[in-house]
Design goal:
The complex is a heterodimer of chains A (about 120) and B (about 110). By secondary structure, chain A is an all-beta fold. Chain A has no helices and eleven strands. In chain B, the strands form two sheets. In chain B, strands 2, 4, 5, 9, 10 and 11 form a six-stranded mixed sheet that branches. Classes of the chains: A mainly beta (about 120), B mainly beta (about 110). Chains A and B meet through β4, β5 and β10 of A and β4, β5, β9 and β10 of B.
Chain lengths: ~120, ~110
């Protein structure tokens, strides 16, 4: 069964460094998402991406964050200058269509645990 | 006030018991999702509902749009059902999901 994959599974970085988190969505999906979950807290929406542009973003997704779909398969989240509070699990998700139907189900990747020291 | 509230926050039960987890929301939605998060952190989608009821194996999910409430039921619970169960709603007119804080379920043998 197709699945969303994410790399790396764990990233440790120093405060102020740039990190790129990578995701490979399911191949025939059209909508892509990044979420984060700070340890012990609920999952939060960061950004959605459709048709090669951001379709929606949260207030968390400030100028330090960017997303890109550089080729037909990868979907990346870049954090330009990491802060301690960026430490979290970052989940990528994808779905086939935007309408409320069986194809509206979002499929989540296994997550990347980012630790900022 | 959180847009999505789950209850209980923690639930411990014995194997075989019938489990109910509740979710209430305060915003207009186009769909509601029930998700399962295992200790390693991975998230699996269980159900997506916009009305009525869905069943998959021992899991049943219901939604009452008028009352803005959904329930997830597990029949004949098993220790492997132990996980965090998360309710998330797709806000009407938007793409994003808004998540509840999760219900930590522990099933003891």
């Amino acid at each position: 069964e197709p699945e969303v994959t994410q790399t790396p599974s764990h990233q440790v970085t120093q405060m102020g460094q740039e990190v790129i988190l990578r995701c490979v969505p399911i191949s025939n999906h059209l909508y892509f998402y990044w979420y984060r979950q700070i340890l012990g807290q609920k999952v939060e929406f960061l950004v959605s991406f459709y048709n090669n542009e951001i379709s929606e973003k949260s207030e968390i997704f400030d100028d330090q964050f960017s997303v890109e779909r550089p080729d037909g398969s990868n979907f990346t989240l870049k954090i330009r200058s990491t802060k301690l509070e960026d430490s979290a699990m970052y989940f990528c998700a994808s779905k086939r269509q935007g309408t409320t139907s069986g194809r509206d189900t979002q499929y989540f990747g296994p997550g990347t645990r980012l630790t900022v020291l | 006030k959180n847009e999505v509230e789950q209850s209980p926050q923690n639930l411990t039960a014995q194997e075989g018991e019938f489990i109910t987890i509740n979710c209430s929301y305060s915003v207009g939605i186009s769909a509601l999702h029930w998700l399962q998060q295992h200790p390693g952190g991975g998230i699996v989608s269980l159900f997506m509902l916009s009305s009525g009821k869905k069943k998959h194996g021992r899991l049943i999910a219901t939604i009452n749009i008028q009352e803005k409430h959904s329930s997830l039921h597990i029949t004949a619970s098993h220790p492997r059902d132990s996980a965090v169960y998360i309710c998330a709603v797709r806000v009407q007119g938007a793409q994003k999901l808004v998540f509840g804080q999760g219900t930590r379920l522990t099933i003891n043998p």
